[in-house]
Structure formats: C-alpha cells, structure tokens
C-alpha cells in the first residue's frame, strides 16, 4: 500500500504544477507590455548622436528630463535606462566643467526619485560607479571630489546606509591623501578601521590599510607605514585581490624598500607592479612604476660608483657607465611608454653618471612637473643632489691642504655662498677634518690622524663607569621603596 501511495503522489505532481510556468510567463509579458519606455530610449539615442547634441550642455537638459520624467516608471527596463542616464549626466557635467553640479548630482533632487525606487545594492553600485567616473574624468579637481564624498557620506548617514558610507569614506581618505591633508586623512582612516575590524570586511580592510600606509609614508613614519602595509598584505592573503589592487600593494612595498636603500628588492617589486599594470593597459599608473624602476637603477648604480650609501656616506670613486638605463627604455616598452617622464629620468641618469651638478640642476629646471610632483622621486633626487655635491667637493679639495674657497666654487661652477655653506656642514658632519678661515677666504684641510689610544681607552672607562653608577642608582631606589 505504501508503494502505491508513493506512485500516486508522484503521478499527481505534474498535473498540479504544469500550468504554473504559463501563468508566470503571462505575468512577465504583461509587465513588459505595460512598461513602454520607447520615449526614454529615443532620448538616450538623441544624447548618443553627436550631430544632435554636439556639446555636453546640449545633452544635460535631455538627461535630466529622463531622470525627472513625470510618469515615474521604475520597472526593470526603465531603471536600466535611467541608470545609463545617471552615468551620462555625470560625464556631461565633468566635460562641461560644471563641477558644482556634479557635487549635488547624487544627493540632490535629480536622482532622488531613482534611488528611492531601486534596491540598496543598485544604489550603492550607481553611487560608486559615478564617483569612480568623476575621479577619472577630473583627476585634478580634488576639492570637488572631496566635496562629493562628504555629501554622499552625509546622505548615507541620514539614510543609514553603513556599508556604502564606509566605501565612500575610504575614497575620501584617498582624496585627502592626494591633497596632502595627512592629519585629516589619518583621523578618518583610524575611525574607519575600528568599524571594519568589527565587521571583518577584508576587501575594504586591504584598501584602507594601503591608504594608511601611504599616509604614514607621506608623514615619513616608515615603521608605521610598514606595519600598515603588512596588515594590508595579511588581509589580502585571505581573499581574492584584483590585479589593479595587487599592483598598488607591490608598488607600496617597492617604495618602502627604496626608502630603506634596498634598491634591488625595490626594483623587483616595481617590476611586478609594472607588468600587472601593463597587462591591464593602464598607462597612467604604469608610467610611475617605470620611473621608479629607473630611479632604483640610478641610485643602485651610483651607490656603487660614488661610494654613497643610504646613510649618505661619500667617496671619490666614479664610473660614468654605472647609471646606464638605456636597456630599460628600448624595444616595445620604450615605444609604448615614450614621453617626457622617461626623457626626464634618462636625463637625470646622464647627468648623475657624469657627476655634473650644473647639468643635473638644469634637468630639474627643465622637467619640474615630471621630477618634483612625485613624493618619492623628489625626495631621492634631492638626496642624490646633496650626495653628488659632497662627492664633487671631496674630489676637488683632496689634493690640497689649504685652498681658496672662491677657487673651489669656480671649479664646481656654483655660487660662493652655497659652496661655503656646504663645506661648513660637511666639517660639522665630520665628512672631512678642516676649518674655514673666513678672514682669508680659505679652507684649511687637516690630514686624518689615527685616534689617540689613551683617549679611546679613557672614553671606554667613562662609559663603563656610567653603566655602573646607573645600576647602583636603580638598586638604591628599589631598596628605599622596600624600606618604605
């Protein structure tokens, strides 16, 4: 009997469920027939037609009318068309340089009906896509980007959309970093990290820790920058990371190794980041990686040729072929990324190899944007300039026991006050032994004498006595505390 009942149940199932798909199809077809969006499609095609809307200002009223149409259609087809209209309107405002309208686009009355009738996930997707598009179209308008982020954050707080607010706050921290507002960006990042660690949002933790590392690097806090980068890598190991984000992590790793003077390791990280960005065909981000690779090659070669280390010690050795970077800019890579940035780094390599300060300074004047706008390149080129100056001065004064400062300035082709100031700094830093006789305008150089053994032993005795007295003092304090 049980088998017969099971057979009857199985046979009855198709008879009761068979008509259901037909009913669903009818409902869907009815919805599609009811939602007539031909007028919205015509308006979007008008915007796409360059002959009918030759300028962005002509397209803006049409796109606004799509979003504020009186019929209030928000079906699947209408929502897709209005989503396209939001993206197109943001691009039109940026192309027309109406940045004030971009600021109020997402949080104003234009997009309010659309956001009120779509899901929160769709709203978050549109907001993030518009924000990325605006940042790509107007990369220099940082004030406008920051204001857009603040408006969206205020809107998210009013609407209680926590996840979207956190995403936009991470973007705002990145914009503030680009504006050199390190204190404000660091405060925002610290508060954001407290929330994200509770939620364990690893994807956003990777991005925020990376921004934190960049901020600490801008503040010259290398230890905190390395700790933040380590936290970013730890979270990245637990999830899938896109190649674009992985390239930024490798880029930051190379920057920190370059700051420590480990140019070979830094070059390998920069090469890894460059290859990933080259595959993504992201020229804007790949060019800085190529410049950093060339910088590492220059610094590593000159550290061997001039005897300069990451601590700034100088020598008199020279090898004019040491900073040859021609192999890095030939072939397909040189053709694809040729431009003023690569020319500037090639000129720096040539001047540094010749140890010509005059040519070096001329290159800095000729390419101010390419060499002075980047924090890492500006810092290391400034340090390299000081090291080249010290190396040249040591080479000039080496044969002399007494030489006129004006003669040294003429040989190095630099102003007398600059040379005099630099020589005094080198004497104070113990780069060589000597004095400046300003009355006669001469530099008196002393020979390096062996250190007096008696003085050396005496200093060791004093150091050991200091340790003994410190130990006795600490013990006496402990005894007093026990007696009390």
From TrEMBL:
SMART domains: PAM, PINT
Bilayer-spanning residue ranges: none
Region feature (Disordered): 1-23
Matching InterPro entries: 26S_Proteasome/COP9_Components, PCI_dom, Rpn6_N, WH_DNA-bd_sf
Biased composition (Low complexity): 13-23
Quaternary assembly: Component of the lid subcomplex of the 19S proteasome regulatory particle complex (also named PA700 complex). The 26S proteasome consists of a 20S proteasome core and two 19S regulatory subunits.
Family: Belongs to the proteasome subunit S9 family.
Protein name (database record): PCI domain-containing protein
Organism of derivation: Discostella pseudostelligera
